[in-house]
Design a protein that fits this description.
By secondary structure, the protein is mainly beta. It has one helix and 20 strands. It has a five-stranded mixed sheet, with no helix packed on it. β19 and β20 form a beta hairpin. It is rod-shaped. About 4% of the residues have low confidence.
Length: 254
């Protein structure tokens, strides 16, 4: 573009290209002086280094790290801000950090400004759950009396996700299963009962802990209970045999 008698010249370089500005001064005698100015125009005035997608754990604080930003001359540009979206909803960011409450992909946008120009960079956090639930036992052993109904409440469960857990409770006595109902079981035999607590979170992570309840006092132990049951069966058979002989004798007498 030829511009004569321009004086001060203002223009906009709208494309990313290399430009040459020539200033020509021509005297009346035809002598000409030329000055050239070369300008290389880049996209924007801030370059932000790309950030790889990262991972985080649900329920655990994620500290956001600002990507490296530099101006056209290579000087660091700081003081940017973050915004985080999950499924289109804005997530609260405090002091450059946030706590993911759900599994999935969180989109992070970092914005930084210089001389009225703002540049942004986007990257993602994939939030997973690879931590097992936590089971806390009140006591490792408890005591009760034979014949009592024992409430199974000697534990608490929690998880980093903050979500509900699937909890399974099993009771055994001498390796045999004991019926669990209404949140407890009947300690109808003397001896040690084993309570197994298993918690599973929504990602399939599991945790298991055991505690024991000892039943004492008047009652039957496992072996004694078996002996008495067997003895009762023999006694029943004996009385049945006697009754049969009495009936047979009465028929012969008649």
């Amino acid at each position: 573009t030829d511009i004569y008698n321009a004086g001060n010249l203002t223009f906009t370089l709208a494309e990313s290209k290399n430009y040459c500005i020539s200033a020509r001064v021509q005297a009346d005698d035809g002598f000409t002086v030329v000055k050239n100015l070369f300008i290389s125009v880049k996209d924007g005035v801030i370059n932000i280094a790309p950030t790889e997608n990262l991972t985080g754990v649900v329920g655990r604080e994620i500290i956001l790290v600002a990507p490296e930003a530099k101006d056209f001359y290579g000087n660091a540009v700081t003081g940017g801000s973050f915004s985080v979206l999950f499924n289109g909803e804005r997530i609260e960011v405090k002091n450059g950090a946030f706590v993911p409450k759900d599994l999935g992909v969180y989109k992070v946008t970092y914005s930084v400004s210089l001389s009225g120009f703002t540049q942004t960079c986007e990257y993602e956090y994939k939030v997973v759950d690879n931590e097992s639930p936590e089971i806390v036992l009140r006591n490792k052993t408890e005591k009760t009396a034979v014949g009592k109904f024992v409430k199974i409440n000697g534990y608490s469960v929690g998880d980093n996700s903050g979500k509900d857990l699937a909890v399974k409770v099993e009771v055994t006595f001498g390796g045999e299963p004991v019926a669990v109902y209404n949140g407890g079981f009947d300690a109808d035999r003397k001896g040690e009962y084993e309570i197994r607590i298993t918690a599973t979170d929504m990602s399939g992570n599991t945790a298991t802990k055991l505690y024991r309840v000892t039943a004492s006092g008047k009652g039957c132990s496992s072996s004694l209970y078996t002996d008495i049951t067997f003895g009762y069966a023999l006694l029943s058979f004996f009385f049945a045999a006697v009754l049969f002989r009495v009936k047979k004798h009465n028929r012969i007498k008649k």
